[in-house]
Amino acid sequence: MxxxxxxxxxxxECGDIEAQYAVATAYHEGEGVExxxxxxxxxxxxxxxxxxxxxxxxxxxxxxWAEGFKEDxxxxxxxxxxxxxxxxxxxxxxxxSWRLGDAYYFGRSGVAIDYAEAFKxxxxxxxxxxxxxxxxxxxxxxxxxxxxxxxxxxxKYYRMAAERxxxxxxxxxxxxxxYGVGVEKDSQEAEKWLLLAALxxxxxxxxxxxxxxxxxxxxxxxxxxxLSWFKxxxxxxxxxxxLAAAEVYEGRGNLSGAYAWYRIAFSNGNTSSQAxxxxxxxxxxxxxxLYSQVYHAQLLTSFAESxxxxxxxxxxxxxxxxxxALESLGNCYxxxxxxxxxxxxxxxxYREAAKHGSSLAxxxxxxxxxxxxxxxxxxxxxxxxxxxxxTFYGLSVRDELAKLEVxxxxxxxxxxxxxxxxxxxxxxANKLSK
Length: 434
What we know:
The chain is an all-alpha fold. Helix content is 75%, strand content 0%. It has helices at residues 5-13, 17-29, 37-49, 53-64, 73-85, 90-106, 115-127, 131-143, 151-162, 167-179, 187-198, 203-215, 226-235, 239-251, 255-267, 272-281, 286-335, 343-355, 359-371, 379-393, 398-407, 410-433. It starts with a helix and ends with a helix.
């Protein structure tokens, strides 16, 4: 920790707040002393009670993330509140406070549902720049949930999110302008923000744009019209958009298209579509019915393909999170966070994370090869991992490679490259299997 721990501890015991914070941090991080969350909590508390805002914040984090204790949002709220009162900026607490807000909003982890308390912590997160919670704060203002209803404040927070490229922020702000809620009604502004969200496949925004075209409140600036937006939203499961697409087709005299979309809407629970289908049948020729059946089959096929793509993306995201979890586990063993340091266990986790495409895991695997005790220390394998991290992902490890190359023979480097090629093959094979 850059200090003599025993000397610092003596200062802490004499009431030195900076020393108390330093001792707490050492115990929390396992720096210069064995990790001990009980001692960390004790010294953070002493420093916090002496006026150290950062210590109060760290205490709140320990309570919130169950570090050495059972998760306790109520206690976390107490210490975060003290940290803010003692001068800590909201942005310093914001990236923790959303979790606290969730605990009160949903009644998790032993606390009762309390919308006012949830709003308080969501707003801290929003004011700290967390996009999703800007939208959430706006929604709570709009609903009067935990705070007095205030449409202007709702629009303000939606705009904050929208200006940070939040898709939901674009949609919510567009709806404010469309209906004049919290802002002056403005169709051009409404279309501007809804279009941004619609182009990102936000189905509610697509449906609302379609309605604007129907009402004559939108200008065709994107090469689309009401039918195209209803079909886009309908293809993503928006039932009212499916019904609207059918009605537009019917209004344009395309009975086959109308019947196919009514069938889609009915299959997704819109019971009013059944009567509309029965009326259409009396007007349709055999050719119309045949075309409708073909189009309906094409729609179902396209929906299935879209669902397959969505499932693939979800799988890729799950695999990415799996890699992140493996890397985090490796970090625990590498740095001794909550468990004794063990470079062997760390290496196993990093190696698996690297197979899923983590460049930092490759780098850390190389460090494990160098830090492991004999006979497991292996500079050739370290060279392989560093080399691969550098050439395959562009990660800068030039210093590490240069130090190794000085000590390695030509044959050693060649062997290291062979190992790197084997690891690369594993990574590529894992990509193909996805």
